[in-house]
Amino acid sequence: MLNYPDFAYIEKRIRKRTFGVLGTVDGRGRPHSTGLVYGVAPKDHPFALYVLTGAKYKKTRNVKRNPAVSFVIPFPHHWLRFIPDYVVQFQGTATILPVDDEIAVESFSHRMILRENLKAAEKIARERTDDEAVFIKITPDRKIHVFGLGIGPMTMLRNVEAGAYSVEIPEDRL
């Protein structure tokens, strides 16, 4: 019997990454996926991810129509390419927030790439009036599905199915 990691371990790994894939549903009921950078809410706030985008982009329009989303964070193997990428994936609810939302801005303050994206959005806002930047807050459902994180490569080679497990966000982080 494997000892699977808990939510604290998964959250720590999510905080070390900045890239994920957001899944939305368009007005015709068709799926739409977009790769993007994300920030994570400060630890003294409920667990949530934030993405910065334009108010007129397809993902934003989709969220306005249907706030049900999915999110996948890949964890590629740079040295062991024969092992499938590990992933964290969940379903949740998305909310559109203004670009000056305090928690969202703080979530973008801890990594250089996120700070640079925020600066670029501010510059665009000053120079253009045809679109505005917004944050999309992604609130995961309680159950987060995981593949591979915290499982040794040899275990994965012997039984790849052993790498699939779920963790729940603790009540105090919802």
Question: Can you offer a commentary on this structure?
Answer:
- The model has no long low-confidence stretch (mean pLDDT 93).
- The protein contains 5 helices and 9 strands.
- It has one domain (7-173): Roll (Pnp Oxidase, Chain A).
- The longest helix has 16 residues, at 112-127.
- The chain is of the alpha+beta class.
Assigned CATH architecture: Roll
What is the count of helical runs?
5
Largest sheet: 9 strands, antiparallel
Calculate the mean pLDDT score and round it. Answer: 93
Question: What's the CATH class label?
Answer: Mainly Beta
The general outline is globular
How large, in whole angstroms, is the Cα Rg? 17 Å
CATH superfamily: Electron Transport, Fmn-binding Protein, Chain A
- What gap, in angstroms, lies between the N and C termini? 29 Å
What is the strand tally? 9
Helix-strand string: HEEEEHEEHHEEHE
Which ranges are low-confidence, i.e. pLDDT below 50, for 5 or more consecutive residues?
Answer: none
Structural class: alpha+beta
As for the CATH topology, it is Pnp Oxidase, Chain A
User: How much helicity do the residues have?
Assistant: 25-40%
